[in-house]
Structure formats: structure tokens, C-alpha cells
Amino acid sequence: MKYKFPENFLWGGALAANQVEGAWDADGKGMSVADVAMYRSKISVDDYKGHLEISKDLIEKAMQDNDIKKYPKRRGINFYEYYKEDLALFAEMGFKVLRVSIAWTRLFPTGEETEPNPAGVKYYRELLTEMRRLHIEPIVTLSHYEMPLALSLKYNGWVERKVIDYFVRFCNVCFNAYKDLVKYWLTFNEIDSIDRHPFITAGIIPELCETGKEEEAIYQALHHQFVASSLVTKACHEIIPSSQVGCMLTKLTTYPNTCNPLDVEATLKKNLHNYFYADVQIFGEYPVMIEKWFERKGIQIVMAPEDKAILKENTVDYLSFSYYMSLTESVDPELEKASGNTIMGVKNPYLPSSEWGWQIDPLGLKISLIELYDRYKKPMIIVENGVGAKDVVEADGSIHDPYRIRYFSEHFKQMKAAIDEGVDLFGYTSWGPIDIISAGTSQMSKRYGFIYVDQDDEGNGTLRRSRKDSFYWYKKIIESNGADL
Ligand code: BGP
């Protein structure tokens, strides 16, 4: 029984509306930034970094193009229609918790409406009610790559301060409409990823930025998201006194490639920059080293007089984060280029990689948990973790995924080891408990689920759901609260 987790540990899974729902223009929903994300087949460093960029021209073409095969996120896995069946499968596994997001454009199609779309409000009420009926606790992400495309085209997304008010309006509708159903809220998904994916996270279109000021625009947009996160945290506590509001970080734990102090210094800077995003939402102020970094880079952020107080007085209740891999940093640019097949950074020779080049590091999760708890002393929940893989359906319909069971088993053991060292971890939601559309590549073949969905990268298939071997394994883990690890 050495792996038994704390009583009431919240085991479950995590989804995002834009990657599962489909029904991209149903019942009054407006177009979101995700709806113009195209399918990408190759996974190379350049392609990975390149294809996430966007242009007004690409957007306008996509808005006229109804070839849903080109835009996999428009179809997702049709969760919008099948959610009762999928929730029943999650309940069969014994889920205590499910993380979902509310697509902003189902409630506010362009983001600027003064009243919400009733059909959107109704859909999420039915989804959340069904989760409650199945005794599954919702964790609701308010911004998960689903901002209105109209705000991106009209204002260059979050660069415009006015978008704060539109987001607060959207969140207030959610808090009031679902206050009897939802206790746990998350503001921005992987808020740190704005500097890696400025369009899907903040609606920023490079050509709408002042030439040479693209990076400044990203951090201006980020500041507006920080202010919005604080304002909605305040509103949520007022509307739902028992609520818990969290921030969310991509935990990119990075190791130095050698003990050369230059590598160590580069790694330290990378890890501190990664913390910056949670620092602001947990400590309520910008770290002085980030302010100095802005000065050196000539980045000037416009703040309103009231912003510092807003940030300081409305910090979050808990920290959530995603963890998939660890990274390795070298000051030698040739090394990074030479390693080639990892999506980011230098390849770590001590670690295996997934088929998409993400380095699999279970101990890195324990390291991450200890680092984060030591820094923030806040209750934590892991809200994304898992391995994308090309699963095979056998002739008899079975799907054997020992690699996924091994990935989870090793990561769960490290979670328990961290808890035994004093870390306050209150839950875990695997990423993509059911196969869904990849955020980064829009592929279906990058499968994360315990449940297989019959659909290929081009959208062919019956959408039939099938239990993989890992479905039965995770069910046992939840039943035994980890004792069966
Ligand atoms: C995170 C996103 C998730 C999820 C995950 C896996 O950044 O928050 O939405 O997609 O990445 O990435 P991918 O789907 O590209 O494999």
C-alpha cells in the first residue's frame, strides 16, 4: 500500500472545448482563434515553431473556407453532441474530477455583445449538471485558446486593454450561471505560453503589431491578462464565496546540459522566467528581475494607476500546472541545432522521447512538484500530464497501450514520492482522457486517451469510442486511490 494517495485525492482528466467539442458554428457560436488552426502533418523544430504563426491573410482565407477537413478543431471529436456518452465513460473509470473549458464564443460570439447567447449558456449548464449527476467535480478553465477571432482582428487581441472588460463580462456570466455547479475555476490555460503561441493564447497577429515591437505587444497583452485574472478572481470570490480560483503554468523544468556555470546560469534564467507568470498571480507583483529584464530589452508596459493594487489584492487560491517533459539547456547554440529531434532544447541522453520528441521524465515531475511547493507553498493540482502516441487498433478491436500505462505509472509514483516529502498536491487530471485534437499540430493521431476515438487526421472515421487497456488500468488506480500502482 506504499503508494496510497491522500483521502479525497481528486483523480480525473482534462479537456479543452476547442479540442473536443466540434460544433464550431452551432447554436450561435462565433468563430474563435482555434477555428482557424490548420492541420499540420510534419513535426520538425521549424515546422513546430513556424506553423503556430498566423497572418491576416491566412485568417481571412480560413474564414471563407468551409472545408472542415483542413480545420480539425472545428470538428473536434463532436463532444458537443456525445458528451453524455463520454462523461459516462469517465464515470465508469471512477473520475472524481474533470477539467473542461467554456468556449468564450459560445456565450459571446464576437466578444463585444452586452448579453450572452442563451444557447451557449444552456449547453454548459447541461454539461456541468450531467457531471454533477455523475459525482464528477468540474474544474472550469475560462480561457483555453478560445478567444473570439473578432477581437483578434479588430483589436489585435489582448494587446488592447478593452479586452479585459469583455473577458470580465464573460466570466461574470459564467460565475452567475454556474455558481451552484462549479467550485474550482482556472483563469488562463498555460498563461506563460503567450510568448510561444501569441495567437492562440492572446489573439495577437504579428502584422498588427508595430514593427519591431512584437515582443513588447506580447508582454502588454500578458499584463492585460494578469489584470483580467485578478479582476475575475475578485468577482468569483464575491459571486461564489466558496470558490477556489487557480492560475495555470506550463511547468518547463529545465536542466543544464553540463555543470559549466554558463549552462547553469542559462538554465537558472530559463526556470526563473518560467516562474514569472505564476509569481505575478500568486505573489501579486512583478519580480524585480523581470522588470530589469524588460528594461534591458526596451520593453515598456503601459499600466493603469490601479493595476498594481488589483494584482496585489486579488491573488489566486491554488496553483495548477501542466507537465509533459523536462528540457535541457545549453549556451552552445550549435548543440541545440545538432540535437535536432527534440521540439525544444538539447536532447537529454538520459531520457527516452515520445514519437513527437517530448522527453519523458517521471522524476522531473517530482522535481517540479518540490520546486513549485517550495516556492509558493500553495495547494496544487496537476491539470495536464500524458503522452501522445500513435495507438493501434488490433483485429479484435482491442487497443494495447503499455507505453501509456508505463508513462502514467512512473509519473504517479513520483507524485506520491513528492507528497511523502510534504508537497500539498490535491489532485491530478490526465491530459486528454479521451483522444482529442492536438493543440500544437491539430492532429488526431497524437493520441493521449484512455479512450480511443475512431477518427484519423483527415477527419475520416465513425467517431466510435473504444476502451484501451489503459482505461481498465486507470480505473483500478482510482478505485484503489493509487494503492494498485
Ligand atoms: C498544452 C495545452 C493542451 C494540450 C497539451 C498537449 O499546451 O494546454 O491544450 O493540447 O498542450 O499538446 P498537444 O496537444 O500539442 O500534444
UniProtKB/TrEMBL annotation:
The keyword Disulfide bond does not apply. The active site is at E384 (nucleophile). Pfam families: Glyco_hydro_1. GO terms for molecular function: hydrolase activity. It comes from the Bacteria. The keyword NAD does not apply. Keywords: Glycosidase, Hydrolase. Belongs to the glycosyl hydrolase 1 family. This is Glycoside hydrolase family 1 protein. It comes from Fusibacter ferrireducens.
